[in-house]
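Structure (tokenized):
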């Protein structure tokens, strides 16, 4: 079934080329169906890439889904024009009086900054607080997961000695967890981060449950009671070339990154 997005969103052409079912706004309003309403707080600098990755997955749902993108009014994007954001993104003031079935909070390249020092932290906290009464379920990704665990439950993040980058095996810890229904007992998930949350801290909160973890990458997936909040510390939405692109970007910046683990065949970037 289709996902509904603005007719001229640049991600549409890429998704249609992959045979992802996109429905135009004009056609959607003619259908007598109550679609799911999903709000996406896209904090990634590569907004279009992230739009494509998330919409590709949401396009696999069996119900029609209305997508709304949210920008941070308190942050000036360096990689996306304000014209683009004004055209395709809402501000929180424009949606705060609405209800949504789901909220997605993406990662962001601000892991080495204290939460309170992120320029849009107060606005994001307001959104996370608002989500308790206005959203049925919230899905947090990578830094978004760390931010959610910190805001809602006081779970701290810790710096890593080196960037956690690569594809890592994860183990399902609770076979009865509905969120992981259909998963293999062992599954792979990309990670790309400079900080971590720790299993021991999460276990001190009775309302939280670690349902997937990795020997190498640590905590993988955390859920709250009744799955109202989901925290994924990796990037299950990444394309096959995303880690390569990040590695090349860091090389150009002179950061001397290590190769992503378990990613390039024979650790050869030319394969």
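Design, position by position:
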């Amino acid at each position: 079934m289709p996902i509904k997005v603005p007719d001229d969103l640049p991600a549409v052409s890429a998704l249609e080329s992959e045979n992802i079912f996109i429905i135009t706004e004009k056609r959607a309003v003619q259908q007598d169906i109550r679609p799911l309403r999903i709000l996406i707080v896209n904090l990634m600098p590569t907004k279009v890439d992230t739009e494509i990755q998330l919409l590709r997955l949401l396009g696999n749902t069996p119900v029609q889904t209305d997508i709304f993108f949210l920008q941070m009014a308190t942050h000036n994007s360096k990689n996306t024009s304000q014209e683009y954001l004004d055209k395709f993104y809402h501000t929180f003031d424009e949606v705060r009086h609405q209800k949504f079935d789901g909220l997605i909070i993406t990662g962001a390249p601000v892991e080495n900054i204290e939460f309170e020092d992120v320029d849009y932290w107060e606005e994001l906290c307001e959104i996370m607080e608002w989500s308790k009464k206005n959203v049925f379920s919230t899905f947090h990704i990578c830094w978004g997961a760390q931010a959610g665990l910190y805001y809602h439950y006081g779970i701290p993040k810790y710096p890593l000695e080196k960037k956690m980058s690569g594809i890592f095996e994860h183990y399902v810890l609770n076979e009865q967890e509905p969120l992981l229904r259909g998963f293999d007992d062992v599954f792979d998930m990309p990670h790309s981060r400079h900080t971590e949350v720790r299993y021991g801290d999460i276990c001190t909160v009775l309302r939280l449950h670690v349902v997937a973890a990795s020997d190498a990458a640590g905590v993988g997936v955390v859920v709250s009671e009744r799955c109202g909040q989901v925290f994924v510390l990796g990037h299950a939405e990444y394309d096959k070339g995303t880690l390569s692109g990040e590695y090349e970007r860091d090389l150009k910046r002179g950061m001397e990154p290590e190769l992503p683990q378990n990613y390039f065949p024979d650790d050869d970037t030319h394969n």
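Reviewer-requested clarification: The two ends are 36 Å apart (CA to CA). The first strand starts at residue 3 and ends at 4.
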